[in-house]
Write a structure and sequence with these properties.
The chain is mostly beta strands. The chain is built from no helices and 18 strands. It starts with a strand and ends in a 44-residue tail after the last strand.
Length: 295
């Protein structure tokens, strides 16, 4: 497991004999994001759909190797530093963040063979001593939230004090998450919400709430931003609801109190013969690499 800012070292090993039409091997370590926006123009028969992309590489390390004539084994190492800002492997609708090792075999007169291996990167939540409370005062209420950053499973305390005698039906506490992405001058969002609790009208209350699991942590890249908001809604029967929002730095993984940087676990998903497993055939089958004599 790696953390933001860590140095990644990948070891590549190839054993001949190689495919007779093999020309070169391309090795790579790459970290980046691909964000897309799909939109429509026109109407009726002139209606058309367009997709625009923003592709950004945070960091990469690439090496080109010649195929040995005498079928000698190839043993090579690549190093790459992961981005300093918080990021992890993610895939959603028209949106992907990746940290991976890649291998491409250039073969003449047929399609190249490609292999992808995800680099497990962990978003390390902050320790408890960095947590601060948040307060908000309006003409009718004083509100308090005990956390400005929290992990899934953390217990936060929400307090509401009524300043004026107003009529309302209930107080609802919700956790909202928005994945906002943009490409050029166009933008789009994916939203999710969970109702945490509903409270009857009271002059003052303080309630502890356990944060549920959300799909993403609060992260930000070049063309995307994931925001998590704790929303307190005063539900009025005959008037417009009052909404109060507290932005929370949310992590959908439990806190690790004893972080050991650069002590990583190594996991391998390999074929016992050629040392690789195909991304396209990874479910229930061996890689069947045509450049291995066993396949």
């Amino acid at each position: 497991i790696y953390f933001s800012g860590d140095m990644v070292r990948a070891k590549f090993f190839f054993q001949g004999p190689y495919h007779k039409n093999s020309r070169k091997i391309f090795l790579g370590l790459k970290s980046g994001e691909n964000v897309a926006i799909t939109y429509t123009t026109g109407s009726g028969k002139t209606r058309s759909t367009h997709t625009i992309w923003a592709k950004h590489v945070y960091n990469e390390s690439i090496k080109e190797l010649e195929i040995p004539i005498d079928d000698n084994p190839i043993n090579f190492k690549l190093d790459m530093q992961l981005p300093e800002f918080l990021t992890e492997n993610m895939k959603a609708y028209n949106f992907r963040v990746y940290h991976e090792a890649t291998v491409k075999l250039d073969i003449s007169r047929r399609s190249d063979e490609k292999f992808l291996f995800a680099i497990p990167i962990f978003v390390d939540p902050p320790s408890n001593d960095r947590i601060m409370s948040q307060d908000l005062t309006s003409s009718n209420f004083t509100l308090n939230v005990s956390h400005d950053r929290a992990c899934v499973g953390d217990v936060i305390e929400v307090g509401v004090t009524q300043l004026k005698d107003i009529k309302y039906r209930s107080i609802r506490v919700e956790l909202h998450q928005k994945v906002h992405r943009w490409v050029r001058k166009r933008s789009a969002s994916i939203k999710e919400k969970k109702v945490l609790t509903t409270i009857e009208p009271q002059q003052y209350f303080s309630q502890k709430i356990t944060l549920p699991y959300m799909n993403y942590s609060s992260l930000k890249g070049n063309n995307y931003r994931i925001e998590t908001t704790l929303k307190i809604i005063i539900d009025k029967s005959m008037a417009k609801d009052e909404n109060y929002e507290f932005i929370i730095e949310y992590y959908n993984r439990a806190r690790r109190e004893n972080r050991k940087s650069n002590h990583h676990s190594t996991s391998k998903t390999v074929c016992p013969f050629c040392g690789f497993r195909s991304e396209e055939r990874r479910v229930g089958k061996e890689c069947r690499s045509r450049w291995s004599p066993y396949h």
